[in-house]
Amino acid sequence: MALEAAGGPPEETLSLWKREQARLKAHVVDRDTEAWQRDPAFSGLQRVGGVDVSFVKGDSVRACASLVVLSFPELEFCLQVAKQNGSSLPSACQPFCCWKQLPAP
């Protein structure tokens, strides 16, 4: 209840997020599985990406998730995906709805 009063998510939501985090952790690969990972020049790596999830300030429910993909080694923009969400689940757990893709060079 104190979290809710301070603007944080309800305990039920935190519990759900913790279970989802544990589920995802079980799928983490902590070793090199691809040939390019063992090559100092990363030969064969074609794309790199980054993800961010941000909550609206003062709102523990509404959030925005973004994914950006770049070509490698050129670091040219390939794809951006963004979703705003009003659910009680983290945005990263929901399917993305907005796609913007540039044609291949």
TrEMBL record:
For whether the record's keyword set contains Transmembrane, the answer is no
Q: Can you name a GO cellular component term?
A: cytoplasm
Could you list this entry's UniProt keywords, alphabetically sorted: Cytoplasm, Endonuclease, Hydrolase, Nuclease
Gene3D superfamilies registered for this protein in UniProt: archaeoglobus fulgidus dsm 4304 superfamily (3.30.2170.10)
Q: Which domain of life, per UniProt?
A: Eukaryota
Compartment list: Cytoplasm
GO molecular function, a single term:
hydrolase activity
Swiss-Prot/TrEMBL GO biological process terms: DNA repair
Main location (coarse class) = cytoplasm
Q: Does the keyword Nuclease apply?
A: yes
Mind telling me what this protein is named? ENDOV isoform 6
Gene field: ENDOV
